[in-house]
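FYI - complex with pyridoxal-5'-phosphate, inputs then prediction.
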Amino acid sequence: MAQEQPETVPRGDGQTIPHWHSPSGETIRLVEAEDSTVIDDQGREYLDFVSQLYCVNAGHSNEAIIEAAENQLRRAPYIASSKHNDTRDQLADALADIAPGALSDVYFSISGSEANEAAMTIARKVQDAPKILTRWQSYHGGTYGSGSLTGDPSTRSTLERYAATTNTGKFLPPLPEAFGTDDPDELARRAADHVEFVIQNEGADSIAAIFMEPVAGSSGAYTAPPGYFERLREICDEYDILLVADEVITGFGRCGDWFGINTENVEPDMITFAKGITSAYIPLAGVIAADWIGEEIAESGHDLGQTFAGHPVACAAGLATIEEYDNGLLDNVAELTPVFDARLERIEEEYDVVGTTRGRGFLRSIVFEDPETGEPFVNPWANDDDEDNPVDDVRKAAMERGVMFGSGRPNVQLLASPPLCTTRAEIESAFDALEAAIEDVFY
Ligand SMILES: Cc1ncc(COP(=O)(O)O)c(C=O)c1O
């Protein structure tokens, strides 16, 4: 029997079509949120171990961010994206300050997909070349342009069933299963050589840029072996191809540093960002480009735009969010990363259904496999909602126990990606719930 609704929460008529909708999908309705906790319309609390969509990095209901947005709303609620605005310019400066090296010029956008579309347009223009290369097992967005960058087959099949997306090419990610080696040096070498092989076969002159997530996001939180990005930087320089870091998930402390690429010892030509810039309170995204790219655009012009790009209210929220990261949230990730490491190690040791765990900082994946075969429990590429998937059962069992984890693409893994304000006790309690959920389903 349905429980009584809290009086203050009208149910609505339920006609919203959720994104990533599946007929067997969730029906939960969230109505309140604070710090690392979200609350549904039945009053049930959940630890949000997926930061909704890997985006509420500063935690829910952060007062400083709300106040900054409110103040901007009262002072100048909207200024055209074609004009300069003090708040927008201040945020551009703040982004240039935290971005690596010569990345200095910011072209704002609205969503991560559109940030990647903008970076594609800019890369093609300044390089005068049509193609962009990305990895299989990647996610860069769900619009036609950004979806063509995405390696995830379910996104691409949804888009490409009715219209071609063009001028992109794919290469293999630096995963042990793709290159048949666990040795990090060997993996870095083989995976980078493979990228060079793809470039030579596609024709270096036809390629404007390579886009990569420094740590994979929804496709499985996999990191690159040491030296891989450095070698890719060399290859890009040798063949005159731009290197673009898609930091839509990995940016703003998610992996322990301002940007995921900071850990790799290379400077990309552009960074794309979204999600964590405002802790997702208000849509905001963009491209941080190397100064020479900014100069080229300033000289040649760029006759494209979007009404809501760099919205001043979002920019005010962005400035306050950056301050919150600086004032302790990044430190919290650094301090509590060992707690994550220890719990993931334990889960790998204790449960034979856990094949491996991956990731960095507060972006982690727990990959499940059938201990008898060493293979995933479901065909990772079949995208069959009706198929029995014990990994999904674990996710649902954890939710029953009050913790939300993310489901990866492919759905052979659970993703753990809590807000950066999450405490040690909350991490311990989320992993306790996960272990209990694994026991519920498998033992
Ligand atoms: C790495 C990455 N790039 C781009 C996007 C697209 O962002 P949005 O959903 O804001 O369009 C996402 C979304 O999850 C992402 O994870």
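The two ends are 30 Å apart (CA to CA). The mean pLDDT is 95.
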